[in-house]
Amino acid sequence: MPELPEVESLRRMLEQSACGRRIVAVHIREPRLRRRVASTFDRMIAGRTINAVRRRAKYLLVELDGGITLLGHLGMSGSLTHRGQDFCDGEFDPAHDHLRFELDDGTALVYNDPRRFGLLKLVCSSELGAVDELRALGPEPLEEAFSAQYLFEKTRRRRVAIKNLLMDQHVVAGIGNIYACEILFGARVRPGRAAGRITRAEAERIVVHAKGILAQAIGSGGTTFRNYRDSRGQPGRFATSLQVYGREGERCFVCRTPIKSKLLGQRSSFYCPCCQR
DNA sequence: CTTATGGCCTGTCAGC
DNA sequence: TGCTGACAGGCCATAA
């Protein structure tokens, strides 16, 4: 379940290990992801050098020379591992290793995705703003545009639960179920509260904790709850810092009250019934 | 416009 | 033991 911190951790590693490398070939074993991977991939990509690795929300943007960018989304279970040499062991997973990008130093970037919810497509580097997936995204949560004033205004006259609003990529981009739960625990706000009833002070706390928790999670290499892996095949280390996610029935670290879980729009929401109001 | 719901997809696990 | 159904949840299409 890669969210912003996991994608950012991956981006930083790939920036170190893959930037400047030339992609010599692309092998597609299974093109059926959320949308079918274009059969022109190898022809379009082979021979191009990786100039930069960027991120927008949960999207990874691999900028190639010649004005083409590889847009990637890991969906639920996707991973991009750098295999060969002293990187990842390169354990073969023939059932789920769907694409393989061979690099000029003999290593390879392998896209693995058991549930195939991911996305890989090529876009024009000069027209990223016009790309469907990126066009309507809200501000990055770690940038100044995501302020208490901004969030407060976005919540006005909205009946949707505050947690669902935080996960709405049009409002703020990059937050998923795990971090939405953690942010609301930090802000001491119940996930099911109507967004429109959030106070100015609560909006302030939500923004402060969103920035703090996401930054801390990036520093820990993200969260591995089930199967997220970084480009070296290693799990993230933030799972041990989780306060509520996945802890139903266990005691709140602050007040010892058992953590509750409740479905909110088909998604489990974890919260402390005592600390969060 | 807002909000709710179902579909995609497969590995895992509880329960019978 | 092996089957069935629920669940995990990213994003999108569709409906009300």
| Overall structural domain count | 2
Order of strands, widest sheet: 1-6-7-5
Oligomer: single chain
Write out the CATH superfamily name of the largest domain: MutM-like, N-terminal
CATH class of the largest domain: Alpha Beta
Summarize the main sheet: 4 strands, antiparallel
CATH architectural name of the largest domain: Alpha-Beta Barrel
- Determine the mean pLDDT: 91
Shape: globular
Helical proportion?
A: 10-25%
**CATH topology heading of the largest domain:** N-terminal domain of MutM-like DNA repair proteins
Q: Please report which band the strand proportion falls in: under 5%, 5-15%, 15-25%, 25-35%, 35-45% or over 45%.
A: 15-25%
The number of helical segments is 7
Derived from helix and strand composition plus strand pairing, the structural class reads alpha+beta
Low-confidence segments, given as residue ranges, are none
> What is the CA-atom radius of gyration, in angstroms?
20 Å
What does this protein structure show overall?
This protein is α+β, with helices and mostly antiparallel strands. It folds into 2 domains: 4-135, Alpha-Beta Barrel (N-terminal domain of MutM-like DNA repair proteins); 148-271, Helicase, Ruva Protein, domain 3 (Orthogonal Bundle), CATH 1.10.8.50. It contains 7 helices and 10 strands. The strands form 3 sheets. Strands 1-6-7-5 form a 4-stranded antiparallel sheet. The longest helix is centred in the C-terminal third of the chain and has 20 residues, at 200-219. The two termini are 27 Å apart. The model has no long low-confidence stretch (mean pLDDT 91). It binds a DNA duplex (16 and 16 nucleotides) through loops.
